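User: I'm putting together a small comparison set for a docking exercise, and I want a reference complex before I start. The sequence is below, and the ligand is zinc ion. Could you produce the 3D structure with the ligand included, as structure tokens?
Assistant: Of course. I'll restate your input first, then give the structure tokens for the complex.
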Amino acid sequence: MRERKNVFNNIDWTLIILYLVLVLLGWVNIYAAVYNEEHKSIFDISQSYGKQMIWIASSLFLGLVILLTDARFFSTFAYIIYGLTIFSLVVVLAVGSEISGSKSWFQIGSFGLQPAEFAKFATNLALARFFSTQHINIKELKTRLIPLFLMGLPALLILLQNDTGSALVYGSFILVLYRMGLSGNFLLAGALVVVIALSTLMVGTVYVMILLVIFAIVLFFFMKRIKRNIINLVALLILGIGFTYSVEYAVENFLGDHQKTRINVLLGKELDLRGAGYNVNQSKIAIGSGGLVGKGFLNGTQTKYNFVPEQSTDFIFCTVGEEWGFLGTFVVISLFLALLIRIIMLAEKQRSDFSRVYGYGVAAILFFHFLINIGMTIGLVPVIGIPLPFFSYGGSSLWAFTILLFIFIKQDTNRNALL
Amino acid sequence: MANKSLASRKQTVIAIFLVVGLIFLIRLFYIQVIDESYTLSANNNVLRYVTQYPARGLIYDRNGKLLVYNEAVYDLMVIPMQVKEVDTTEFCKLLEITREGFIERMEKAKKYSKYKPSLFEKQISKETYGYIEEKMYRFPGFFVQPRTLRYYPKPIGAHLFGYVGEVTQGIIDKNPYYKSGDYIGISGIEKSYEDVLRGIKGMKIKMVDVHNREVGSFQNGRFDSAAIMGRDLYLSIDGDLQEYGEKLMQGKMGSVVAIEPSSGEILAFLSSPSYDPNLLVGRVRGKNFKLLDDDPVKPLLNRAMMGTYPPGSTFKMVNDLVGLQEGTLTLSTRYTCQGKSSSPIRCTHTHQSPLNVEVAIQQSCNPFHWQVFRAIINNSAKGSIRENYVTWRNHIMSLGFGHKLGTDLQYELSGNIPSAEKYDAIYGKGHWNSMTIRSLSIGQGEILVTPLQLANSAAVMANRGFYIVPHVISSIGEKGKKSDKFQKVVSTIDPAHFEIAVEGMRQVATLGTARWYQIEGITMCGKTGTAENPHGDDHSLFMAFAPADNPKIAIAVIIENAGFGSKWALPIASLMIEKYLTGTVKRLDVEEDMLNVKLYQ
Ligand SMILES: [Zn+2]
């Protein structure tokens, strides 16, 4: 009894409320997205919105269970949970069911479960556990390689399931590494890699190489510090040029046709409004037609009449944009930013490294989903099928995000208890 | 402590979050609030404009009898995207098409669009549709669109009504009202009154989902417009008379036109050989049209307005009228006739001589009328030969010959009353005279008239000097509101002179060629004609009006290659008059002689 009272006294209610608001808004928008005249009740469990209600209820139960679990459980069993998840990722490769091109589902009757969703928090737990051990020095190669291995293993297995989107999520842990002391140059380099890769694909290898050379020359003449490091500069230049080549090579040789087309469409190289560009175009039309205040609840036409694909899952943000307009999208983006910032603020306050690292991991994962999902619906990011946390329809993802967040909330309640 | 400095990294992380959020909001503000094009695209996506086709107006006769109405048919449409696995065998059996036909149609539809509906099979009858309707649910992707087609309860009036067909690209280019798939009147009344009959197309705005499935009306149908049916036409045609005429004309090549003289209303308008107008409706139209078009007797030709014939003897009193008007002929003028030995034109009858104009009309004396014509043309007191010919021609034209009458039916021909210039061109200016063109006096030579013009000239005789432009419309929309857009044309001949010509025509019917076909209680005035035909046997002609004193019907009958006017054209005209004026035909022997005779191969 004492402990339970303790838990609820120390809970960060801001996070809980943000979570509840997002989940409920998601539910309402799923209802609007796939609204069915013949099943008007939002509680009708034959429809996705009715099912989502069950997912929400069970998620709340899961959340409660986590809050009542001993906080030390998660740090103690972090590696074991991680190990079990990796195991399940291997098993699903062997016996899983294939749904829309990804062999990533455990199918038990009509009930499907995606281990990839759960691997996110498991990996986060493992990373937090690793960084909470004593004598960690990020400058050491070993300290860099182990987290990379922890991140890379599930990413690789998920990649084998043909679920590129979920695999990319593991890249988001670079934020955690950054917080743990990884040089900011890595973040910068990462950003630069993305920019070079995109511009290579957009304007072609030759132009990017020319630009890189010009950029290097400019740096050489105008920055004194670099003048002294001419060898480094030349090395970087060669590296850059090599990278542009490899990007082109990789796209040509490693990507599947549909991924190639998707990239081309995003870059504006291909205008295929019935094919790969269709989704993005329809998604933009749905959001764009919402105007300032939207068409009103249940009045969206683009999403409801299936112009937008997967409107209750990956493209749920379209319904927000169409029915609630800019005001709606503003509110949702603000809510996500508030949630992310709140998590970072709380993470910084943590006394234990485990909780802090874990908190950063939660923020990183959520941010990555937020970035990719909303970015893709408004045509800023290639179409990568990952859900919008708490919003998108789906049991696995809602459970996984709830567990991810609630473990952090639980850790946070222990912040004061440990004093 | 290193941790302390690392703690400040949260600001960088938060800054990254905020920058991304800000980029998103700017982008969203742009596509949602500033750029309007997305709203437009959204409407295009979701709204389907479905044309509502109106039924064409109905067509009634002068007694309110329905002549033309509409039957519902169904166009079977297909949206290839939605077509699931179909039991092709059963589907083809239902539609009575072959498997190859099915594949071909699907390919065509797919080529047009996978998402938009296209025509799979047009004009499925109500009966066939009734049969397949209950099985439609098994063929997703297919749906029917109701249309209407013309239906004619009696197989009459083909040339009168004309037919309806699908618009061609040429029509669409010229008139933006029409869209691909619309129907339009192509000939006859359907063409003349297209604007009235077609009605107004409606538009339903439906919302569709991405699979083009209809999901409801747009804003509860606030912007929908219903199709408005075309307005009905009440014709001046007497359906019974028309039907009777077509029966009489079966097996004969030619035309019958009957007009109410006082109003110019056309009572019967037929061309033979004809065809059942139902043949040129719907799916069978193309095939039947080809058959009819290839038929050597040309059933598609509307002889009533597009057939031109020399009027022969029916023209004689017209010529007399000019003489009377010009003063070169009076009631007391007498010319001699040497019968078969007359020169330059022989007489084909035996009769008293000399004779006056009334007897000359009754006896159809060629030499008399030639002398009347010569007197007009050679009247040097009045002017030169050429000038006198121009005067003669102008009088003739004022009686409705040599030009289009301006009726409300399509494709009327002018016939031919040769101009002086024409003769100048043929013979050289000053090198032709009354002798050169003497055939005109007996309605031969270059002169050509249409059956409609001939009937109209009978109306002019009946009216003693004027005609109302002949027309088939009585009223539009509702019965009784007569149209006054058809003008009265007064001839250049003094009405008094007509009494003389009419008296001649009365004698034709009482004493002359027509006396064998008198109708009990009715005095008919008429004139037979036997027109020499350079291409074959003579044409048989008759023009008449009745009753003599209060004319109700003026009629012209032309039977091609049938010999004497008195043999075929006259009895048919007399039967028509009897039928119209008394309602029933009592002279069954005459009727019997006319029916069931085939005069052409
Ligand atoms: Zn004679």
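Residues B 337, 347, 349, 351, 363, 365, 367 surround zinc ion (CB under 6 Å). The longest strand of chain A covers residues 102-108.
User: Thanks, that's exactly what I needed.
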